[in-house]
What we know:
The chain is of the alpha/beta class and 189 residues long. It contains 7 helices and 6 strands; from the N terminus they run E-H-E-H-H-E-H-H-E-H-E-E-H. It starts with 6 loop residues before the first strand and ends in a 9-residue tail after the last helix. 35% of the residues are buried.
Amino acid sequence: MSMLNRAIFLDRDGVINIDKGHVHKQEDFVFCENIFDILRAFQSKGFLIVIITNQAGIAKKYYTTDVFQSLNSWMVNELRKQEITVTNVYFCPHHPEHTGTCNCRKPEPGMIFQARDELNIDLSESLLIGDKISDIKAGKNAGIKNNVLINKVPLQGADYEHYFENLNEFNLHSLPVESLFQEANKVLA
Length: 189
């Protein structure tokens, strides 16, 4: 039996980049402060980096799948310049009012399950970082035990395990480092 991988699942808009609403152009894409350090820390501990993002702008016809994929390629390349390897990006192009329901739009766990199956991921040893209740619920619905909410205010309606106001306050040491980073002492300065 092959060994399962650990992953950090991240929402895109609001976690990887500043959420300006339906971001689909490079000039509107601004990486969140501290995201590179956080991703490098997880990567150094053997976590796969997996981005899961709802992209309702496609269903609403604000932009096309090709436009999204072009920005996605640029983002992955920019992260690579920072010595960060994104294992995969999963996206949901649906919106219930425009395309009906689906199993991939968060809070449904479809993208997480797809990643689990394709990348041989142990969800119980993985972590999710999101900025919306739907992100946290997707993690919970998939069986992820460590769900981190990054938002200016604590949100009601989601049973998240960890909360930080922003990525500058993100503290790996407050997470259950024994199980997530078995040999870690101090990851971020």
